[in-house]
Every structure is written in structure tokens, then in C-alpha cells.
């Protein structure tokens, strides 16, 4: 990778470093894990209890009381579930463990993907009551996200103390989801849960450091099964021979095999925890340190030059040039921007001169006045190790670590921070498309405040799209779901904006049913120069999508050539305004066939008015039909729910044009649906399919509206 000389010179000038718990100098001393799982699985509670167990915080808070470290956002406390990614780190056995807490609500899938981008592995949390509560569907969807990210995983079965806790059923549901996806991963329990007669829970590791080396005649069936699976995965003939021969197999060797299998994504260890009771927390932390691969094992990331040309991939080299990525943008209690950054190469220090390189494949985002093409120079002032909202200043952030930067000035979510001598951008991750529209209306006096608030929101809300609809004159916010919309509106109001939420208006058009003639006569005489213009037109329908065509067939100079452009201007203006206000007339041909002019009183403006009057008469005589926007919709749905989705599309006056199974138990449905039936489809489809179906929409054309 180019630029190494300048980077190495700067690092030598800084002198040797001595790592700390908050700022290790060796990526091998880091474990960054994304905590992922469905809603109510206990992710935030697990993170809180792990922080308390390690001594990172003095006392664990609760979600209900709004006192947890990672749910520090006011909207998370109000909704009592995570709405954005948050990071907290803890020390364990000399290793810095970064816990990246992610939301479980499907509306915040973008935050989950950001968390996966920031991590080297996944702690996938599933509540042991989820199998009874019907959470298998969202669990399957999140598992697919983790597989797409290509990260090693540890499955955590939480809430062991729940009244309907069923570890066996929860594990079976997860195995079924993994098998259905043909992921090729083997789920292996690595802990044992024991319940005392008084209801007390305890969780013990099956490969504990103090346990004797296992043998083939070990009385613990769970341990025998684990060891056999690991030996099979290792393909180590020596271990196999020892096991078959009844000799003890070294625990240290088994833990090495487990770590290698996790890194190779052939084995997913399964650990049980009961966070509030503290059961299984030590075993889980040991598992993270021993089995989760360090930052140095992170796969190289595809990269590009500022002009979009391919660049050498970025590897986790602490001695390389600085390459970091903004994975999340938020605000602190003072309203200042806070950027969560993952360093992928080099060592970020406060004296590092950086530039911003955006992803050319993404929609450009506001950069607070910075250079919109990237290459905006900046210098980091302070580096912090985040503990939720608490910023702890550190001297550096090495490759593989996470840090928070305040007052960055430039660079938003998805941007790459790199050295000035070697500008490089990391290919961004895919963002979910916002498909739920929310319309706002604001008084003229409040419009500036709304615009400022939306500009600030756009820097942090990567999945928020703001549209100012030219047809309906509404401000439309495109969100990913109702929970996302609730957060966006709350943050907009907190920024001082005053507005009301109204129904989304759907643009409509009209076209004529047949041919007709219209006469426009504009004659006025009130002293001095009068106004005189007469024109006769014919109107007729055209094929869909033809627009408006104007034809001049004046002969004999009935209307002077200088006034004909005025007639056309008046005709087009009236058609665009619509005979029915708000409904432009489209797909018509207007032919100017006759007219009269006066040598003194005629003018361009008079013929504009006459053309407008002629159109109104002709359209009224021809009759009209309302045209609505038709969208091409593609739905990906599980085969078992295909009938429900097809029936729902039919109820929305949708026309199915094709279905195509993909061979993995899902079917793609292509349909044409009126826009009015799609306004809440993002919410309704999620409810209909328990969040397992996804869809995209694309404008197709205008079609006659279907009467209901």
C-alpha cells in the first residue's frame, strides 16, 4: 500500500507506545464483538451486566429505569429499546473487549449493519423463551445479516430465568434456521446450565480451565459430544487417536481447535447466560477472549481511490498508513457531533493529518460545509474510548480498535478517514431502503427551523431520505418503519422545529377519454388598447407516457406566426396546472386549427389566455379519467407465506406479473401496484410476514385509477 513512508516517519517521531486497558498498542489484544439479536432478547441487559462484572462500571443499570450505558439516547430510553449502535469496552484477562450493542427492532437494520461493520465477530443473543413467543422469524433474518457480513459468531442463549425458558427449543430453532440457510455451520453448546432445588441458576463451561482433560469414557455426555465435534472439525489424526484410544485429550488443544473452528466459521459455540443473576458471564467473557478471533484476523476490505478506481485492499496492519471509517454519527448531550470510528489500518493519534474519502457508490450526503467531493483536510483533536455516552480520552487508537471523535468537522457515516499522502476509500456497506413515507406541513415562519433540523438529521440518519414533492408541495420523510419515524420526528422537534404530520398526498394526473374541440375567446375593450384573441383547438388522447404534444395547423395567416408561441404557452400552462386543480393533464395532442387576431388589440398575453380557455373547454367536452402512479414492486418472501402475500397484493389492486423461486425456500414476486396502496406497505408487509419478507419499489408509469 502506498503512503507507508510518510506514515512510518510520523510514527517514529511519536516514539514508543505503552498500551493501556483502554488503548492497547497491539491489535492482538483486542476483541470487538457486535451484540446482535431480536427485540427483547436481553442484549442491552447482557452488555450492562458484563460491564458491571468486569468492573468497567460500578453498578448495572436497567432498561426499564433508563439507566443502562448503551441505551443512553433519550429516544432509546423513551421507547425502552435500542435505536442506534452504541459501544462500551471492558477489560478481561488483559484483553480489551469492545461490545457493540445493536438494536433488535427491524426499523433500525442500518444500525445493525453499522455494528457488524465495526466488529470482528458476533455475539448473537436469543432469548430462551423466544421459541415459545414466535421470535424465530426475526431471528432468521438477523442470522442472514450476520452471515452476509461474513463474521465468526457465538450464539448466546439468554434469559434462562424466564418462566417459559426452553434452551432445547431455542437451540433447535436456531439450528433449523442455520440448516435452512445451508450455512454449513455446526452449533455446539460449550456451557452447561444447572438449576438448584431453590431455583438458583449456575452456568459452567464444558472446557473449563480447572476441569480434567476429557476422555472417551467421560460421564458428561454434553462434554463428550463437544469434544467429538471439535476433533472432527480439527481433522487432527493425533487427537483422534488419543480419543479413540481412551487417552485424555488436552484441554488447551481443544480450546485451540475451538478458536480455529470459530475463526473458520465452521463451528458456532453456544453459551447460556442469565445476565441479571450473573450466571454464565465469566464463561462468556472467557469464550470471547479464547475463541473469538482478534482484530488481526479481520478479512481485508475492498477499497477504492477517490475517483472510484480499484485500490489495494486494506489489511489490519498497525504499522500501515491510517485508514479508518466512520461507522456511526450521533450527538452528545450538548448537541455536538460524535463520530464512532473503526480504525482498520495504522494507528490514529491526535496529531494525525487526515482527509475524507467518500464512497462514490453512495448517495452524496451533507458534510457541514466540507468539500462534497471528499479530500477535506482535517486534524483530529482528541480521541476517546466510548463507554456509551461517556467519553474517556486515550492517546491513540490502533488498527482494529474503536474510538469516538468529537468535532470532526467533515466526514459522515460511511466515509473513510485516511492520510493525506495516500487518499483511499473503503467500499461502503449496503443501506436498507426507506420505504415508509411521512408527510410534514409547517407554517411559513417555521420552515427555516424545519429545514435546519432536517439538515442536521441527515448527517446521522443514514436511512432517512428527505423529499420535497414538487407535485404535492409536501415535505416527505422516507423512513424504514414506524419506530424509525417516531425517532426522527422526536429528534426534529427536539431541534426546535414546529410542524404537523399529515396524510401523504399522492400525485395524480388526468387524460382525456376522446377527441373534442375547444374555442378560446378572450376579447376585452375598456378604453385604449383592448385585448383580442380567438383560437380553436382540437384535443385527442395519446398513448401512455407520451406527454403533451402541440401541433400548429394554422393556414392563411388566421393567427399571425408571432402569436402562435403564446397559444402554445397558454395551452401547456393550463394542462400542467390541470383543469381539476392539482391534476395535470397528460398524454394528449393539442392541435391549433383556427383563430382570429386584431391588428391593434391582439398580443402574446391575450393569446396565452385564449389558449388556456380553449383547453379548458376541450378537456371538459372530451371527458377525463384520473391517472394514478403505478409502481413495480418486487417482494422476496418465504415460500410458506407466498399465498398470504399474493392475497394481500390482490386486495391492494396489484397485478402480479411473475413469481420466481430462488431455490432457498424463498420466492420473488413481481407485481404492479398503485402508489396509494403502497403508503403503508412497509409496515403491513412486516406484520403479515413477521418481518421475514422484504420489498423494493420503482416508479413505472401512470395508469387509470382503479375505483374502490
What can you see in these coordinates?
This protein has 708 residues and is α+β, with helices and mostly antiparallel strands. Helix 6 (136-149) packs across helix 7 (167-180), helix 12 crosses helix 13 (482-494) and helix 14 crosses helix 15. The longest helix is centred in the last third of the chain and has 19 residues, at 604-622. It is elongated. Pfam families: EFG_C (PF00679), EFG_III (PF14492), EFG_IV (PF03764), GTP_EFTU (PF00009). Residues 28-296 form the Tr-type G domain. Residues 1-29, 199-221 are annotated as: Disordered.
Give the arrangement of secondary structure elements.
Blueprint: H1 4-14, E1 30-36, H2 43-54, H3 74-79, E2 86-92, E3 95-101, H4 109-118, E4 121-127, H5 130-133, H6 136-149, E5 153-158, H7 167-180, E6 186-189, E7 191-195, E8 201-205, H8 221-234, H9 237-244, H10 251-263, E9 267-272, H11 281-291, E10 301-304, E11 310-314, E12 323-331, E13 337-345, E14 347-348, E15 353-357, E16 377-379, E17 383-387, E18 390-394, E19 397-398, E20 402-406, E21 416-419, E22 425-426, E23 436-441, H12 447-460, E24 465-468, E25 475-479, H13 482-494, E26 500-502, E27 508-512, E28 516-524, E29 531-541, E30 548-552, H14 564-577, E31 588-596, H15 604-622, E32 624-638, H16 642-651, E33 655-661, E34 666-674, H17 681-689, E35 694-704
Parallel strand pairs: 1-3, 1-4, 4-5, 5-9, 6-9, 30-31
Antiparallel strand pairs: 2-3, 7-8, 10-11, 10-22, 12-13, 12-21, 13-20, 14-19, 15-16, 15-21, 17-18, 23-25, 23-26, 24-25, 27-32, 28-29, 29-31, 32-34, 32-35, 33-34
Helix pairs in contact: 6-7, 8-10, 12-13, 14-15
